[in-house]
Amino acid sequence: LEPGMYTNLNYIFGQPLNMKDSIQPYWGEWLGLGPLPKDPPCAPGAAQFIVARDRILSRPKKLYQDMYDYIIDPHNDHYAIGCFYEYIWHYIFTHKWNMCVCET
């Protein structure tokens, strides 16, 4: 892959999701992503993407370890957290909040 490449395969296979308040309960400073942006995020759903190595490495390994530890914690809602991760992969890899045009 070319450096910097991020392609969401769901532009081909699915419709964009307007995620409005879906991620609010799970966003936290523990992710190291900063405060939750005010605008609702928007990206094609289902978290199917191709991403170049440099984009993955643009975030610290601790982020991925913390995400893993959080989702395997038996006290957490695995389904909801899985959906939350699905909604933010585009932000983690591109640093862009809105990847499509959605109605709000």
Give me some keywords for this one.
single chain, 104 residues, alpha+beta, two-stranded antiparallel ribbon, two-stranded antiparallel sheet, 4 helices, globular
Structural class: alpha+beta
Strand order in the largest sheet: 1-4
Give the number of helices: 4
Radius of gyration: 14 Å
The tally of strands reads 4
The pLDDT mean sits at 78
Distance between the termini: 34 Å
Order of helices and strands: EHEEEHHH
Share in helix: 25-40%
Low-confidence stretches: none
Major sheet summary line: 2 strands, antiparallel
Coarse morphology: globular
Fraction of residues in β-strands: 5-15%
Please provide a brief summary of the model.
The chain is of the alpha+beta class. 36% of the residues lie in helices and 12% in strands.
